[in-house]
Amino acid sequence: MSADSTTSLLTVFLLGVSLGLTACAVTCLPFIGTLAFGKAGGRRAGLIDMGLFLGGRLLAYSMLGGLAGLVGAGFVKWLVGGLGNLIIGSVACLTALLLVVPGRKNRGTCGRPQKLANFPPFLLGIALTLIPCAPLATLLATAAAGASAMQGALLGMVFGLGALLTPMLVLIPACASVGEHLRNDQPWLEELLRFGAAVVLLLIGCRRIATVSPEAALVSLLLCLAAACLLLRRRPGQTPIPVAVVPVVFRQRAD
User: Fold this and answer.
1) How buried is residue 134: exposed, middle or buried, by Cβ count under 10 Å (0-12/13-18/19+)?
2) Separation CA 46–CA 44 (nearest Å)
3) 90-135: per-residue pLDDT in tens?
4) Residue 101 included in any domain
5) What is the pTM of this model?
6) First-last CA distance in the chain
7) Distance of alpha carbon 12 from its chain centroid, rounded?
8) What is the average per-residue pLDDT within 147-162?
């Protein structure tokens, strides 16, 4: 690797660090912090969510760099044109629905509910890389100038590694721990935390969509509310419990 290439990678890494330490926390915390707080899974669950979230970001930055190197500078225009906000808003709405998906143990259990619980942090990590900002635009412009998908993916991965140095490393587990403390102290808050977080995610998701199309935001809101009502009508753990029926036999008393 030449000295110029090493310098370029170091510059891209520092560019990622500048994003991770500044805009990343401000932009991402309302989404992933709300999710971790609403799940109230505790520090361990918060660390898992943090790993999935940051892993999604690293993968997405690598893919964005590769696409920019393959497609060219026009890819940046797609993001600026509102594609990023549409994807972010849609993923936030989906996350809100998955948060209210009936599950007896939405936190820390095996099986289908836990698998569903693992998707939102990863999807949010991918979606939130699409926010148009100066560091990302610089990365994509640099990758597009190289006109190479492999080189662009490498630049995106290095950028993503720099962006992993973020306050999210502490804030996500902290939000999950605070939620768990409140739930354990006041058990009646469990449902309120989960549904409150879902409402916040739905609103900020629709707000993102509204920046592109207010009509689409309204339709998304109505569809999500309808889907949530259907999901809440079928809540596992509240199905009727079979009860053994013991026949009662009445015998005529002998005189």
Assistant:
1) exposed
2) 5
3) 999 999 998 887 554 444 444 444 455 567 899 999 998 887 777 8
4) yes
5) 0.81
6) 109
7) 25
8) 89
Q: What is the pLDDT of residues 35-72, one digit of tens each?
A: 999 988 888 999 999 999 999 999 999 998 888 888 87
Per residue in 171-217, pLDDT tens?
A: 999 999 999 999 888 888 888 999 999 999 999 999 999 988 899 99
Which residue type, as a one-letter code, is found at position 250? F
DSSP 129: G
Place of tokens 């808050």: 189
- CA 64 – CA 141 distance, rounded (Å): 11
Does 255 fall in a domain? no
* Cβ-based burial of 220 (10 A; exposed 0-12, middle 13-18, buried ≥19): buried
Residue 119 forms part of a structural domain: yes
Secondary structure of 48-84 in HEC code, one letter for each residue: HHHHHHHHHHHHHHHHHHHHHHHHCCHHHHHHHHHHH
Number of domains in the chain: 1
